[in-house]
């Protein structure tokens, strides 16, 4: 039986050899860690094998959106690095993310943000 972790000379076959849940779903976040945290949380007695993959994909999508908005916020402030204040301003200025993250969820108050008029 061939060792599935052995490196072969053909890089095209590498995805077939190393086929974990992260590779199959093309995710960067660790599916196994999300699975472990779900099972340790005692929230559900039974979990489908697709549940941690789906939750990992949702978390990765949310973080990518937040970082994209925070990067744009940093660019408007003529900064190269994203700071926690940029992340907070991005969360406050986006209506959907503002509803998802309540105002009490931030660790320190930033400068008064520009809130759009309703």
From TrEMBL:
One GO biological process term: spermatogenesis
SUPFAM superfamilies: Histone-fold (SSF47113)
InterPro entries per record: H2A/H2B/H3, Histone-fold, Histone_H2A
Keyword list, A-Z: Chromosome, Differentiation, DNA-binding, Nucleosome core, Nucleus, Spermatogenesis
Location of this chain's protein in the cell: Nucleus
GO molecular-function terms, A-Z: DNA binding; protein heterodimerization activity; structural constituent of chromatin
Superkingdom: Eukaryota
Residues of the Core Histone H2A/H2B/H3 domain: 25-91
Name under which the protein is recorded: Histone H2A
Organism this protein belongs to: Bos mutus grunniens (Wild yak)
PANTHER family tied to this protein: HISTONE H2A (PTHR23430)
The family this protein is said to belong to: Belongs to the histone H2A family.
């Amino acid at each position: 039986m061939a060792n599935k972790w052995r490196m072969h000379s053909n890089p095209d076959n590498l995805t077939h050899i190393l086929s974990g849940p992260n590779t199959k779903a093309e995710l960067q976040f660790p599916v196994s860690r999300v699975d472990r945290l779900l099972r340790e949380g005692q929230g559900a007695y039974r979990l489908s094998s697709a549940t941690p993959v789906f939750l990992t994909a949702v978390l990765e999508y949310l973080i990518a959106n937040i970082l994209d908005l925070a990067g744009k916020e940093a660019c408007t402030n003529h900064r190269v690095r994203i700071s926690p204040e940029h992340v907070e301003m991005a969360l406050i200025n986006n209506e959907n993310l503002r509803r998802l993250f309540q105002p009490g969820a931030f660790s320190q108050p930033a400068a008064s943000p520009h809130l759009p008029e309703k």
